[in-house]
Amino acid sequence: MKPGPGDADASGLLEEFDRLRDVYPRQMSASLVLPLLQIVQQQKGHVTPADARLVADYAGVPPMQVVEALSWYTMLHRQPVGRHVVKVCRNIACALRGSDRLLAHVQKKLGVAPGGTTADGRVTFLAVECLASCGTAPVMQVDETYHEELDEAKVNRVLEGLR
Amino acid sequence: MSGQAAQDVRTENVFMSFAVTSDSHTLDAYRARGGYEALGKALRTMQPGDVEREVTASGLRGRGGANFPVGSKWSFVNKESPVVYLCCNADEGEPGTFKDRWILEHVPHQLVEGILLAAFALHARHAFVYIRGEFDLALRRLRGALDEARAAGLVGEHILGSAFACDVVVHRGGGAYVCGEESSLINSLEGKKGYPRNKPPFPAVKGFYGAPTVVNNVETLANVPWIVARGGAAYAALGNKANPGHRLFGVSGHVNKPGLYELPTGYPMKKLIFEDCGGILGGKPLKAVIPGGSSTPVLTAGEIEALTLDAPSLQQAGSMLGSGGLIVIAEGTCMVRLLQVLTRFYRHESCGQCTPCREGTAWMDDILARVVDGRGQAADLASLQEVPEGILGNTLCALGDAAAMPVLSFMKKFRNEFEYFVANRRSLNDGRLEA
Asked: What residue spans of A9-160 are helical by DSSP H?
């Protein structure tokens, strides 16, 4: 699969794609769809329709299958996101431990509602469902990292550290 | 760890049998406490069928929530099939549940050994771990463990010098609760959106890429090394006779010491909440317990009095042990608002394939949002009965039932709060969720 015109950064992606392909048994190239999309997102922040086509060609599946997956999995972003993504859990265990209060606090602190990105492109703020950290609720995830047993002061420290 | 109590724990526990340190998750540490000896024993002295027989004899049941006998699940696989696949379900997402994450972070090699033993029993050349996309440390620890195991000849070709070969691939999910359902997990692993499949055929007959496939939960598989090392009969002697073994119970919500507790089945629920977990925050009275993850029917304080933590006891009380995640709720909590936290979740996670679930979860959430907003009508209470009844049993997978059961049980047991909210346009408990 050669990179098409306009896909200036596709060659960097293809290198990563090839590394991934060696991990899966050969006959299972369709299984590459989700991990390939994850690689694209990791490198570019979000996944465009052109990226979806690239993934479909590489995995040998119909483009529609990739587009469907892209819109169905909530961790995949189809629009640009901030440099950091802050996910605050709002599910039951966190709700019992004050996630309403924390969500309001984060919103005030960042000046955007859940789903929004700060004007300077620094942070995208999301209210998310259970992160499997109920014993240390309330929790949030900033990029990859979990922050547990939160209170307002701890949230402030984490948010102020984001550049 | 020190002292006599620690010594007892070391010999008895299946998971929490050591002191957690900065390197207790490594291969060296795991081997130093007897890790991979069960695999060595199986490869040297047992046939695949012997491993399956020990697991069947152990009475081990699925720890993901369905409580299905593991030996039976394995027995449905045609071992003569040219290809058999094993999938480890690490897509932990049932609200209230956080045990698999602990296993992945702290005893990843115990899981790897369990996967290898299961793969040996099932004649599976390839195993896959479908891990939650959000998991970070858990993912790194699992990948690290597999790298160590590969380098030590424990994964790959000629494992421990035997003819047994097995590769383990780690596959990250994309953020979808329904992918914890086994056929949805398989579709997701095949690069599709995670729609559950119609059953039969069950995955054991026709699963991953059409081949016989066993999908087992992380905690389920992590029990297998203990069973093979000490024998199925020894495991069957732990805890409740009808539902034996140890489980990692997660306790969250309004308790003083939330967290993960390894206990034998049959342990008194009250003892866990009031002794191990130090009782209710602020010394408040207990109001309710959701005993096995958010999908399981809620129980009142009165109902849990004599309950023990095993499937038969919970079943008799009209609920389920599910994934072993207990969500504890103090007196003074608004059950109407709390239920809407759950309906919002199930609405968000319904995959959209089956009409009763897709439409029903949205209706239930719309109605509850209206009630919470002070715009509820008397007819809404009837709808909150009819809609979940229309979902129950009418969907391809268990997500529909999972969404319906909390609504039915909250409405049945705390009906006065719903009636009060509709009549007075405000919460009987000031809308409080925190204790």
From this structure: 10-21, 33-44, 49-59, 63-72, 92-96, 99-110, 152-160
Cα(B269)–Cα(B261) distance, integer angstroms:
12
The answer to whether A151 faces chain B, any CB pair under 8 Å, is no
Which residues of chain B make contact with A133, given a CB cutoff of 8 A?
A: 98, 101
CATH number for the domain including B319?
Answer: 3.10.20.600
As a whole number of angstroms, the distance between CA B98 and CA B245 comes to 19
**Touching A: B residues 279-338, CB under 8 Å:** 290, 294, 325, 327, 329, 333, 338
Tens-digit pLDDT profile for residues B20-38:
999 999 999 999 999 999 9
The reply to whether B294 falls in a domain is yes
**CB of A20 less than 8 A from some CB of B:** no
Do B34 and B73 belong together in one domain?
yes
Q: How many residues does chain B have?
A: 435
A93 and B290: CB-CB below 8 Å? no
pLDDT for residue A5 is more than 80 = no
pLDDT digits (tens, 9 = 90+) for A99-146: 999 999 999 999 999 999 999 999 999 999 999 999 999 999 999 999
Classify residue B198 by its DSSP letter.
P
Which of B201, B216, B236 delimits the end of a domain?
Answer: B236
Domain carrying residue B78: 3-236
Whether residue B295 has pLDDT greater than 70: yes
Domains of chain A with CATH codes: 10-72 (1.10.10), 84-160 (3.40.30.10)
pLDDT of the residue at A9: 61
Q: Which of B94, B254, B259 sits opposite A96 (nearest CB)?
A: B254
Residues B227 and B83 in one domain: yes
**Residue at B150 is within a domain:** yes
Provide the pLDDT for residue A10.
73
Q: What is the pLDDT of residues A25-68, one digit of tens each?
A: 999 999 999 999 999 999 999 999 999 999 999 999 999 999 99
**Residue entry with tokens 């809308």:** B431
Asked whether residue A1 carries a pLDDT value surpassing 90, the answer given is no
Q: Is-contact B97 B292, C-beta < 8 A?
A: no
- As beta bridge partners, residue A128 has A89
When CB atoms are compared, the residue of A27, A75, A145 closest to B136 is A145
Is the CB of A68 inside 8 Å of chain B's CB atoms? yes
